[in-house]
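From the shared-data thread, chain only:
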Amino acid sequence: MSFGIYIVGFLILIGGLIYGAAILHVPTQWIAVGAIVLLGLAILKGVQATRSKDPARTPQSRTRWDG
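Structure, as tokens:
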């Protein structure tokens, strides 16, 4: 999955939660705090879900250190 698509989906989710919180008359500062926390979580989870794994090291690619 693309990082951009992941973030767009999360932004739609955050927008819906902000809208619901506003309808419930949650104070604006708490809506902002929740949105910032969720945005940080979205970035962390997006990177985790879309990063490519490091290739496995083969025995031929290892170097021996005779220290």
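Helices lie at 3-23, 28-50.
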